[in-house]
Fold each of these.
Amino acid sequence: MPVERLVEKWTSSVNEVVIGASSSEGGKRSRVVKLGGQSAMPFLSEEGPIPNLPSIAMEVLDTQPKEWPDCLVEPFKDVINNPVKWAKKCQDEYKAEAICLRLLGAHPENKNTPIDETVNLVKELKSSVSLPLIIWGCGNNEKDNQLFPAISQALKGEKCLLGTATQDNYKILAATCLADGHNIIAESPLDINICKQLNILLLDMEMPNNRIVIFPSTGALGYGFEYSYSIMERTRLAALGGDKTMAYPMVAVVSNEVWKTKEAKASESEMPMWGKAAERAIMWESTTAIGFLLAGADLLIMYHPKAIELTRNYINQMTVSQSVSRSAGQLTG
Amino acid sequence: MLVIGERINGMFNAVRKAIETKDKKVIQDIAKKQVQAGAKMLDVNVGPAAADDVAAMQWLVETIQEVVDVPLAIDSAKPPVIKAGLKTCKKKPLINSTTGEMEKLTTLVGLAKEYNAGLLGLTMDEKGIPDSAQSRLEIGLRILAVAMEAGIPTDDIHLDPVFLPVKFGQAQIPIILQTIKDLKALSDPAPKTVCGLSNTSQGCLDRSIINRTILVMALAWGLDEAIADPLDKELMDAMITAELLLNKFIYCDSYLTAYRKAF
């Protein structure tokens, strides 16, 4: 007897945000990354069109990382002290879709790298790497507000993704992104009401709908992941249900959230019962990433090439199985 | 909730004069203002004084559609006038309105079918407005049954429990509120529920606060749509706040602005 398939139909779609500008659009990027645009929950392409698959950006730090476990240093060991070479390796060898430069060293409590040094790094990155660029600030409001106008100007025309704007500190970054044609990351602290409020504040500054990406804050598997998951899912359900102020693509930071957890960092001698450290850590990153894909993330920021490969395989499998089940038509039982 | 703007009605002097003198600008301004204020559908009524009401309806619909693209509720007691409006509509219209009286009901169900229109049904009939929830429900069911038999989906039926002026039918108000909830349970998918909001305050001194309050109460009982004045900002704010408290959308500090941007 045929079983009726219950398929949700949505009235609205997520805004599409394009990161990167090719030469025809006045930039120098060899490709662009398109986020969002869908009228369906993750991978449920029967509900509505999903024009863009989720993208994965590889994260590069502006300063040599400390306390990274061996298995994470290994893929980058020859370039880890040089962010530009590191990014180039991600592009050429690991086939990254985009590069996310995190300005960790610029933080006053880290190396407090001078503004011009950071701007020079960004300029060098822009000319050495042809992938779309994401620049993630140090998180110190004062320093970020000094850095971003200069960085944004240096990247003008490249349609980068810059972040993050928060409810208490969004005006300078928003004005800068508007002036130089970049997209903006709107960060909220695991709070859907603040997430929505910040979107309104950005819209009030006349930030166009197709240039906002939501960062709802992310936690690794076992470390608050479920809070992020439920907020992302509610955000997406609201967007598909017609709330235009929530209809933006979402980014999940998997990289540093995962690799600071005990499960990713503990050595085999510390935790002999947990199996091989490298396998465990990579699984922790890819499993967290997949969780965020299911919550609705459109962009993942990740570290380990192997974890990225596993996550890409998952995306491909989910997409293939969808088209197979579509062509199979109605389920019969 | 869906607000159906009530301002294009020949009972208003400005509209009556504009119809008489074929002054498009007056009508188009009212149409645009209502849509900007949040109306998702506009009611169109030529009023009782129009000389040629069929031609007037056609002119009104054409005039409105030149400047806004929301669907229209064609409001008349006369089927030929309704037909003239339906014929001219570009977007799926709503017929406003039938009652449970069989002859009228059959005619208007026929028109709804012919023009793929929604149908607003008042829960009253040739005997007048019932004074019990039960009788209102019976008429609602009759309207649904005739419409369903003609192949009109139940969610294209908009049932109106007929709000009475508090001045003349105070005891009826709680019954009417209860009826909203019961009407929703008549079919699956449920019919839409709608009301002519300003009826409640007819003849009263403080109309605005009465309209606001009954709207909020009716929303809590499951009202989906209201024929109301979207230019009454406090009314719209009350509606948005009621929807917020009913968990229809996600809160943020600027939720009034957010709602107007979002929906």
Amino acid sequence: MWLKLAALLTRPATKYVFIALALVFPLVAQNEYQIYVMASAFVWAIAVYGLNIITGYCGQLNLAHGGFFALGAYTLGLLTADYSWSYWPAFVAALAMTAVVGFFVGIVSLRLKEHYFAIFTLCVGFIMYMLMDKWEELTHGPVGVRNIAPPNGFGLVDFTETTPIYYLVLVFLMLTMWFIGRLSRSLLGRTFTAIRNGDELAQSLGINLMRNKVLAFVLSTTFAGLAGALYAGMVRFIGPEDANVLHTFDMITYLLVGGIGTLSGPLVGTIGIVWLTQSLQFMEEYRMILFGPLLVFLVIFFPRGIVGSFLSWLHRRTQGKAEAAAKAQQSRDTTGRRVNNNA
Amino acid sequence: MNILLQNLINGLTLGSIYSLVALGLTLVYGILHIPNFAHGALYMVGAFMTYFFMVDLGAHYWIAMLGSGAVVAALGVLCERLVFHPLRHSPPIHDKIAAIGILLFLEALVQMLWGADFRRMSSPFTGVMNIQGLIIPEQRALIIAGAAVLVVGLQLFLRRTMTGSTILAMAQNREGAFLVGIDANRVAMMTFAISGMLAAFAATLYAPINLVYPAMGHLVIMKAFVIIIIGGMGSIPGAVIGGMIIGFTEALGGFYLSNDYKDVIAFALLVVILSIRPQGLFTKGAH
């Protein structure tokens, strides 16, 4: 019974149910605040999908991800607030900016392996934070950027309202998930997984390590930039604290809880944790007392997160069922033969 | 001339602290190949424990330092037992994430217990020494002397005692160390204890001329990582030399270039060095 119900979840048609649920959510939500929380969870989920490309599929722990998120937000914020660009050109510029910076950081940092890469990106993220905090002529320093333009609705919709921005973010989230879904099933996605499973092995299969890793890195930073640009248009105020490494650690928590390297993991983890923190308001500040040990617990006992553990449980069960069925069949066969022999 | 000397003294002070923190980090890396992101949290806990013993319980500075060293050493051992030991066969990305988990937990815990305020902690050494116009605060002199004693003491312990040699042996060759009957668990716990103790001592020495707050470990740990990458991960002399390089660059750069950007200097240095030599300055061959 449970097994059948669980197996339903993995059916491709299930995703339409979830899309429908997301579409009607603003209608059933009790207040505007809930819609807003859900929209911000979607924004974080987009960033976590980006992190999943380089860290989940490709196996490189990128600790500058929060920095790239803030880079996207700052590019959009400064262009619209200080240079009076309108939202969508600035949005494209933010994506281009994070992609270009991601490319240059990538070609330097990806020459390093494992720990060196993690530490290097930690430093890159910190340099970004320091620049946003100290380069006052450009970034306004600790005061942050105000008067960021909301997404331009061309007179049709007003994106300063909560519900329209919710749907806008939802559209981008679905595009992201569609893209990542295609990616993970493509040759490129499999190439990334091959790199995670072993540099040398992948190389011996003729995979160009550097080119593929840089590609994964640029894709991941671009999604971080996308999320950052949406965030800036939604919150309309950003400061250097948005580049704090703690946000990167938050995203790692979301990714790990949901399931690293899985397709629906980032969404499940982000929505789950964001709502958990929301429902325990007092935890906002001290959430790490719970999440720190949770991270440790997860990597020790459930390194594949909710989605990964669920999938392997399902796989084991169906496998077990099939084996049991096969065994039963076999024993029936043998008994049958014995009967025949007797006859 | 005096200004330059003054800055050199400052550089030496900073370098001493960085060296102590980096030493703990490099020891753990040498034995277990874990980049211990939680090391900065251990440093921070060390400062808070000293504060607790000294201000809340009224203990003497030295007693507080010893007490804090003992507590943080125990905490390090606990981390090794509860977290890193069960993860010893996992992919390396798990160690790093678990270390981040410990870091987040310790920081939130300290913030809950003591609050996020910046605290002052004064040591009994508040005077200044005046050597022919060169002004050296006693605490700074204490830092330099204390770090020197600790580094020499650590060297003697590692080179001259049997227990210390087992650490070096395991860092040099894991399988070889097992073959001659060295107990890996004991060495790992001991390494974490020493590493935690060094962090606590460094924090206790540095806190009186700085502030005590839950996020105080962030910058120090990142710089310590820069140091051990520059000096070669796992190398003990590398940690000391790297610490001095960063300390002096920061003191001189902060004075002659820009005080606002002095914290970026270390990271910019790392980015430049790794861009030119991905294997670090002092490492031989590939890593």
